[in-house]
Amino acid sequence: MDINESILFERKRGDCYKLLSACFYLPKKEIYLEEKVFEGLTLLLNILCPDAAIFSAAMEETIQKYSDEDLAVEYARLFVGPYELKAPPYGSVYLDGERRVMGDSTMEVVRIYEKAGLVMDKDFKELPDHIAVELEFMYYLIYKEAEALEKSEKEKALAFGETRLRFFNRFLSPWIPPFCEKIKEATDNQFYIGLADCLSTFITNQTRN
């Protein structure tokens, strides 16, 4: 694989993270379908992780069974509350050993964001280690690494690559399997079961690679 093919491959990997991130915000069925989120994700995963593509294709099929209200209610029940969160979408709950948000790992994540040149928007209402934010950060790091390689800025690309690996290995991949298991244990909604299987399979594949 030459450098251009490698860059293209990495951009596809980044796009997978971006599309998976979109699935963990409050669901908008019409937008998902208009933007062909699941179709696009399946096309990418067929190249990068065929085992996960099975589940993204299932998501495209099963979302048709549910109304926006159905999806929103289940999203809130799993990830928002107001009472017990069935599947807390925050890394610190799993990484810090005390099942609480805004733990030590959250502060470390914020420092990594800032070192990479990012600051959390004050109007953004989610916590820094929310699953959607961390997946989007992976997209950002891969995009910046690929951009630097295109410009032959090797040191810059190396720095983004090292940050990506550290963030993935320390702050993302360890908590994805238990998080996805909690989703599957807590719901019979086929869309969210498919999402959990898709994310866990993709992340496990990235761990091996």
Please characterize this protein's 3D structure.
This protein has 209 residues and is an all-alpha fold. The protein has one domain (3-208): TorD-like (Orthogonal Bundle). Helix content is 71%, strand content 0%. It has 11 helices and no strands. Helix 1 (3-22) crosses helix 3 and helix 10 runs antiparallel to helix 11 (190-208). The radius of gyration is 17 Å and the shape is globular. The protein starts with a helix and ends with a helix.
Q: Please, what is the oligomeric state?
A: single chain
The ordered H/E elements are HHHHHHHHHHH
CATH architecture: Orthogonal Bundle
Rg, alpha carbons: 17 Å
Give me the secondary-structure category: mainly alpha
Question: Taking all residues together, what is the mean pLDDT?
Answer: 93
- For the record, the CATH class is Mainly Alpha
- CATH topology call: TorD-like
Q: How large a portion of the residues is in β-strands, by DSSP E?
A: under 5%
Percent in helix? over 70%
Total number of domains: 1
User: Outline, from the CA principal axes?
Assistant: globular
Contiguous uncertain segments of 5+ residues: none
What does the main sheet amount to?
A: none
State the distance separating the first and last CA atoms. Answer: 15 Å
